[in-house]
TrEMBL record:
Keyword Endoplasmic reticulum: no
Cross-referenced InterPro entries: NST/OST, P-loop_NTPase, Sulfotransferase_dom
GO biological process annotation, one example: glycosaminoglycan biosynthetic process
Catalytic function, reaction form: alpha-D-glucosaminyl-[heparan sulfate](n) + 3'-phosphoadenylyl sulfate = 3-sulfo-alpha-D-glucosaminyl-[heparan sulfate](n) + adenosine 3',5'-bisphosphate + H(+)
Domain Sulfotransferase: 62-301
Protein family membership: Belongs to the sulfotransferase 1 family.
Gene3D superfamilies: P-loop containing nucleotide triphosphate hydrolases
SUPFAM superfamilies, alphabetized: P-loop containing nucleoside triphosphate hydrolases
Predominant subcellular localization, coarse grouping: Golgi
Superkingdom, taxonomy of origin: Eukaryota
Organism field: Pipistrellus kuhlii
Protein known as: Sulfotransferase
Places the protein is found: Golgi apparatus lumen
Disulphide bridges: 263-272
């Protein structure tokens, strides 16, 4: 009986959001509702590697999640945020809250997907599909209503083209045919509103679903277009939102003329995003581009009104 009680106590200690200094964690609001994790549920499903390591590191449920949007720059954001010494990031997209086969395995499984982190570090995971999945906001809120969320968005039209380009390249790599952008986007002379990529760019629709569970001040919107053009100011805003000490500097970024976008410099080591990032979009008829811009004009206005700010989108 004593052994069982000790195990419960160790697990509960492991799952606490450990502050980086005495007092409340810098990323938590004083007086905010406590996370509603259930230690008993986690105890039943906790992985064998869940124990605290001799150096004090352990797996922690995320303190913040990059919820989207697909082809909005989530990987770039995660890599840049990982420059901060107080951030521990999950390597892969976990898809816990949107894939039933993962969600059924419980928070113990989710915890096992997180990286080992020191007590003072903030754990981050990113799964871009969360933003557009209707069932995810309630599930995330059920895990921790005090969570801070990061959402990175781009010009909706450009995001659609990036979405198409990714699927096209996936088919090309598998030597499978795929229709042209015109065939996908247009049906009967009109935009194909059933095309999933168009729906993913209706940002106001998806954000309203999140705002049913999280107040706007808990969702920081990163301007993905600005992050590409000038990453440092956007990352500074993210540091402030997450209440991290300002550790990332302008010297951590350099423009790679060959690749045509910014790469990262960390402790003398240079690294760029995978070659699959920043692919050139297919040539699109100007008339079709105009149709795209027209289609998103009203949805964009609704989104600007919802968040109380504007973006430099067509």
């Amino acid at each position: 009986m004593a052994t069982l009680l000790l195990g419960v106590a160790l697990l509960a200690a492991q799952l606490q959001l450990v502050p980086s200094r005495p007092g409340s964690a810098p990323w938590a609001d004083p007086g905010a509702q406590e996370p509603v994790w259930k230690a008993a549920t986690l105890l039943d499903q906790a992985p064998p590697d869940g124990a605290v390591a001799p150096n004090g590191s352990a797996r922690q449920l995320p303190h913040t999640i990059i919820i989207g949007v697909r082809k909005g720059g989530t990987r770039a954001l995660l890599e840049m945020l990982s420059l901060h010494p107080d951030v521990a990031a999950a390597e892969n997209e976990v898809h816990f809250f949107d894939w039933e086969e993962h969600y059924r395995q419980g928070l113990g499984w989710y915890l096992s997907q997180m990286p080992l982190s020191a007590p003072h570090q903030l754990t981050v995971e990113k799964t871009p599909a969360y933003f557009t999945s209707p069932k995810v906001p309630a599930r995330v809120h059920g895990m921790n209503p005090a969570l801070r969320l990061l959402l990175i968005l781009r010009d909706p039209s450009e995001r659609v083209l990036s979405d198409y380009t990714q699927v096209l390249y996936n088919h090309v790599q598998k030597r499978k045919p795929y229709p042209s952008i015109e065939e996908v986007l247009v049906r009967g002379g009109r935009l194909n509103v059933d095309y999933k990529a168009l729906n993913r760019s209706l940002y106001h629709v998806h954000l309203r679903n999140w705002l049913r569970f999280f107040p706007l001040h808990r969702i920081h919107i990163v301007d993905g277009d600005r992050l590409i053009r000038d990453p440092f100011p956007e990352i500074q805003k993210v540091e402030r939102f997450l209440r991290l000490s300002p550790q990332i500097n302008a010297s951590n970024f350099y423009f790679n003329k060959t690749k045509g976008f910014y790469c990262l410099r960390d402790g003398g080591r240079d690294r760029c995003l995978h070659e699959s990032k920043g692919r050139a979009h297919p040539q699109v008829d100007p008339k079709l581009l105009h149709k795209l811009h027209e289609y998103f004009h009203e949805p964009n206005k609704k989104f600007f009104e919802l968040v109380g700010r504007t973006f430099d989108w067509h």
